[in-house]
Amino acid sequence: MGVNVSKRQFSTMLDFSSLDIPMTIKNIPIRSVYNFGKVIGTGRFGIVREAQAKGSKIKVAIKSISKSLLHGMDNALKREIEILAKLDHPNIIRFYEAYEDDQYINIVMENCCGGDLFKKIINAGNFDEDQTRIILKQILLAVNYLHDNKIVHRDLKPANFLFCKSEEGAMLKLADFGLSSRFTRRSDTFRIAVGTTHYMAPEVINGCYTFKCDIWSIGVIMYAMLSGNFPFHSKFECEIYKQIEKGDINIEDKIWESISAEAKDLLKKLLCVNHFQRLSASEALAHPWFSPLNKQPVHMDQSTLKAFQEYSKISNFQKEALSILVKLLSVDEIMELNSMFLDLEVNGFITMKTLNKALKNSGYQLARKEIKELMKSIAIDKNGKINHSEFLAAVVASKHHLQHEEIWLTFQHIDAEKKGYITSNDIKIAFERSGHKMNDKHLHKIMSEIGKNIQSQISLGEFVEVFQKIHM
To answer: Could you tell me which residues come within 8 angstroms of residue 60 by beta carbon, excluding any fewer than 6 positions away?
Structure first.
């Protein structure tokens, strides 16, 4: 890309003090659960390996971080894991679980085997506008979801975007949340300069910035995809900082002659030095340059509506179990469902307004009360919106024939101590690891639905029966 990416980081301090979410780390040997495979990545604190759950064909990626290299940052890393457990979007890498022993903290994630965006740009030289548009929309969707959930990434760069498969047109996933942080209000500012030099916003260098720093980084990524170069580059890092603070970008070279005025307009609005005037992710997605990707009015097919209606009738225990199972399904198994969700979602959720519109466009005349009940029965978190995992859980059982291996893997996930049975406490811990809080009242309710009390044990056979009843 003309210039090597600087690896310098001003600071690795993380700020997760305001978080109040359950711990998600298991204290059992990870090799008792997974067979480790080849190394697929290396970093400053450890390595990433391909792995496979024992007794399963499902492949994952495991990042093993050496505690001896963390230098007292163990708690910060654990808070990063807790943020990961909360994220739920098709364009963000899926977190499965985490393990800790005396030497390592191991993070189990989705295995994105298609390589990163940085390598794609290097190999291609640059992308045309159509390719850039498709990729940039996915980047903005991921970041818009983060910002709506009051999370700033702070290290957006092509190397942190992974393709889930090697095939052309594979979905892009945002990864590496090591420098991410929470904010309470959109006006909140951060003082510690973090990130990778070429992608830093001017206000980050000056030490007073907001979540809008991510938008500047996206502008740099867009520039790199279209031209194959950085907008700001020099042999000397101090010179790069000066160029960034000035914000003058060169779009006069020959390679820019074929780039549309709309693309250049969006680029300037992303790389706007004044972050108050810089576009937000949602505003960028509404830019006319993305109009070729705007589809016809969103529809909902009959099988999806039927899946929603059937899902509303199953027990809370079945819903909770399905919410775990969908996190364990492979990319291939949910690829079509991911596309369906992205067609329907607004800012990472399906709202009642969106669902009602999709149903009307498809010719279904459901009463408002019925639509409201559907929403209520699907949204496990009871927030009036259907998130990604809830959508998958609602449609996966009817659109995808559940295999015994997948049900077994879900059981194994809940039976973290490998006792051969699960208890109400195992269930509570499993859902907390997935980012869901479960109070005792709800726990009693889901146990009673399958004829069990709070002290009961559930065998694998009984667990399989629970899933089989979904298809009856």
So the answer is: 34, 50, 51, 52, 53, 96, 108, 109, 110, 111
pLDDT per position as a tens digit, 128-146: 999 999 999 999 999 999 9
Mean per-residue pLDDT, 13-21: 36
Residue keyed to tokens 């099988």? 303
> To 10 degrees, what angle do helices 316-328 and 388-399 make?
100
94 touches 79 (CB < 8 A): no
Flag whether pLDDT at 19 surpasses 90: no
CATH architecture group of domain 302-471: Orthogonal Bundle (1.10)
Q: Which residues are annotated as a binding site for ATP?
A: 63
Active-site residues: which are they?
155
pTM summary value: 0.85
CATH number of 25-110: 3.30.200.20
Say which CATH superfamily domain 117-293 falls into: Transferase(Phosphotransferase) domain 1 (1.10.510.10)
Q: Residues annotated in the binding site, as ranges?
A: 63
